[in-house]
């Protein structure tokens, strides 16, 4: 993925042409966008009707799980539910020892993040290792906000419900409506550190120190952000921690490019949320009007998200910023602080991650496509 980000950036004089090519319509893109819109709308209707918490998370998960083929979407969805279940169980077990004890909870968060980011580099299906560490760490980060252990457990279990049903909806929609893709003719030979499909670990999992360095860098950046926003009592910018984890890629240059996509996408999503909160929400009285709004924004975000890796991440961030700014309950949202906090948190996370990746064990891509430690 790092090579894709670095090699495919537009030259300075061709930004407009590059963007036009990246947003060009195709039949597959239209179908995938329609599926994403349908999934997001269904999640909004189900969560609103049944009052399932974490509506923003459910709607965003449609974008996260949807892939370019039925098989990949199904594998990602099934694996995601399994890893999510393990992660929720692990965080509940950890809370038996860490609830009310930040001196234990913070190291537990750091260990979970480190293991998750390490597994994301050494496992063939690295996304599942990443998800496991991320779920445990983020679940631990909200412990102090819960007024009682009972409400904490209830909230975490509802989080599992919100994610699991959204994943199921996404997988079913893709299986029903996404056309079968033709089998690839010939797959290029994987690079030295990439999986070849015949093993559990990547080729250099046990010999390349860059994997451990990567996990340490991401853990340090994320925990630094967490400690800072907790110390200044500004938990609204918790997207800083999420940003540090989600933009991390193998090389420094690729990480910063992905961070740029996240920031641009969140600016667009935040602007759409700001417009909706100020001009549209005060006039919305039924769920039908909300569904129309969600469908329109999901279509914009989904169109970008179904593009190539060069631009798709920006689409996910448009959806992320909009959903997490607009959906804070079951009533129309009128608080503009959420929009500000999301953008500030993302910018803070980008700055911290950029500094860490630039000065601590920086990795650069060689001409052959392999990594080297500067």
List keywords for this structure.
single chain; 70% helix
Helix percentage: 55-70%
Mean pLDDT metric: 85
Main pleated sheet: 2 strands, antiparallel
Q: Can you tell me the residue ranges where pLDDT is under 50 for at least 5 consecutive residues?
A: 184-197, 367-374
Order of helices and strands: HHHHHHHHHHHHHHEE
Biggest sheet strand order reads 1-2
Radius of gyration: 20 Å
Q: What is the tally of helical segments? A: 14
Q: How many E-type strands?
A: 2
Shape: globular
Q: Per DSSP, what share of the residues sits in E-state strands of 2 or more residues?
A: under 5%
Measure the end-to-end span: 19 Å
Content-based structural category: mainly alpha
Question: Would you give an account of this structure?
Answer:
The longest helix is centred in the first third of the chain and has 29 residues. This protein is an all-alpha fold. It is built from 14 helices and two strands, in the order ααααααααααααααββ. Strands 1-2 form a two-stranded antiparallel ribbon. Helix content is 70%, strand content 2%.
Blueprint of the fold:
Blueprint lengths: L1 H6 L7 H8 L4 H24 L4 H11 L4 H29 L3 H21 L3 H16 L7 H29 L32 H22 L7 H8 L5 H29 L6 H19 L6 H15 L10 H23 L3 E3 L5 E3 L1
